[in-house]
Every structure is written in C-alpha cells, then in structure tokens.
Here is the input.
Amino acid sequence: MPDKEFLNGIAFSNLAGSRFTNFINLARKHKVARAFYWRAILNGFISFILSILSLGDKFVYFLVKKKQKQIHAPVFILGHWRSGTTHLHNLMCLDHRFGYTTTFQTVFPNHLFGFKKPLLWLMRKMMPATRPVDNVPLDPLNPQEEEFGLGNVMDICYYNWWYFPADWTYYMSYQLDFSALEKQDIERWKKTYLTFIKRGLLEQNKNWYISKNPPNTARIPQLLELFPDARFVYIQRNPYEVIVSSQRFFKAILHPLQLQHISEHDFTQNILKAYCLLFDAFEEQKKIIPKKHLVEINYENFLQNELSYLQYIYSQLGIKIPAGLVPIWKEKINAKKHAKKEYPYTTEFLTMVNNALGDRIEKMGYEKLTVSNMP
Here is the structure.
C-alpha cells in the first residue's frame, strides 16, 4: 500500500491545464524535488493529453474570433493579496456588463471553445463547495484572478512560484515587477495577456473586462500601454492583518501545488519582500494614471458601508450604474456570511513586520504596533 508521503506527493494542480510545451520549459528550468516527482509526472501527463485536445479549441477560435466586439477600456482592481480585492471584485462582477476571468478559464485557458462542457463537469465534480481556508464559495464559473491562467499559456507568470517556491525570489525579481525583464519579453507578455483577455471575453460574449490580479499592482505602465483609458481601483488593508492572513492562506494553497520545498523562514521573508515590492511599485507607478481614472479605498472603511463605496467608485471613475444593480448589490451584501477574522500578534511577529515594512505602515495611515499599544 502506498505510504502517506507518496500519496501527499500526488495532486492535480492548475499546471495540469498548461500547454505541454510550457510545462516542459518550466520543468527544465527548475529542479523538481524528489518528493514531488509523481506530482510532476501526473500533471505533465494530463497537460500532454489536454494539449492534443486543445487543437479543437484553436480551430473553433479561428472561426469565431472575427465576431469579437471592440473591447471597452477595462477596470483593474489592484492591491496586495488578502486586502479585500476578491470581495470587491465579486461585487463589481455582479454588473452584467462586465466580463471577467473565471476559475475555469484559469485552469483550462486552452479549452474555452472546445471540450469545455466535459471539463466544466469534471471541475464541478472535483472542486470543494467552499475554499478550505476561509469558506469562500467555489464554482468553476466564479470570478478569478487571471495570473494562474496566464501561467498556463506562457512562461512569464509570477504565480509559477507556487510550483517552484525555492525560486520565489527569481519570480519576484523578474515576473512581478517587470523593471528587470527584457523588452522583448515584456512585449510578449503584453501580446499574450491581450489575447487571454480577448478569448475570455469572447467566450462570455462580453466586451468590458474587469480584472482582479494582485501582481498587476506592479505593472501599471504595461497595462496603460495596452489600455490607455483603463480605470483602476486600489484597495489597501491593515498591513499586519494582510501579512498574517497571507501566511495562512499562501501556506494552504502551496501544499497541493508545490514541486519544490521551501523553508518556513524563506516563505515568510518572501511574503514580506513581495509586500514591499508591490507597495513601492504602486506608489511610484500610480503617478502616471490620470487622476480621474484611479480610486484608492481602505478595506476597513469599505466594510463599514460597501454599497456607498461601490457607488463612490463608479462615480469617481465615470461609470454609470445600470438600473437594477443596486438591489442586487444589497442582496449580495446582506447575504454575506464570511466574517472578518481577528488576528492575535506576537512580539516576534510585530517586530518582524515593523522591521521589514519600515515607514510604509505609517505612510498607509496605520499606527505602527507594539505589544504595548495593540488595541
């Protein structure tokens, strides 16, 4: 009978939906740890089979892409992971005019126009009803961030660190903030990203895209090059809550995806480094966004009156609220079951965060905590 370590090493992941050539390139570039050989083999085999089946998708897409509507300037929701981006995104996606990346599209981006029905059925059979970490409802057609999907069609993807966490620093340096990336690679990313968005919108018969993708917080110049009239919503949350929530959430997500090991120390330090990188990049890059195209909000204030903030966001960005949307928002907000968690902080944790983030905490408008002044 296989032992527990062997069974834990096998798991389906988003990488199974990757183009096989992309899968092979990643496997060659990074060293898969011995404990995860079977996981890599299984996902690679599925990727190979799905890549053959994707030929049907390519053929159908070639026939239907001429029907693509002209794309409206997208709305990009920015902010660090665990800052409230998902909740805001889910609410704004209730606007029927918006198209968005679904969980299905991130796992199977190469099958939007071929074999979708059987793959969608399979996903529904395999997915849990709620996200184990925070009980957020799960469904293949729910809104999702597009980074995982991009990682299944090309090699420039920050989320590849989930598979290769020992190389997390590399992905942070080259594929989160693009400042060190070669110009031709940036152009390749832009072309691929645009195609990804177009395919997703065409599959949904929409022409207005709303994105929630935290890595984009450090890619504003590239987004504006693609969409000069794009709108941006930036949401921030108490950094202490963000860091401790990220530690728990990332660890839970990492377990079924990783093909490498990472130490507890490196894991935590990389979360802190990524936080600082996103914060600094946004503070510098937001200067190039036209003032009327950017709204910055605070998560804690947003939770106090979500409906008012949604109306404020639309007003500031010059987006008209369609008839019937406000009652839908009210119903969704009133039905919300996800409770805000309270996080106890140790002296060690506070010292670590304060040292890593420096004066960024106070720049965001939050008090720098110590054990003596904790609420």
Observations:
- The chain has a mean pLDDT of 91.
- The CA atoms of residues 92 and 310 lie 8 Å apart.
- The first strand starts at residue 72 and ends at 78.
- The first helix runs from residue 4 to 8.
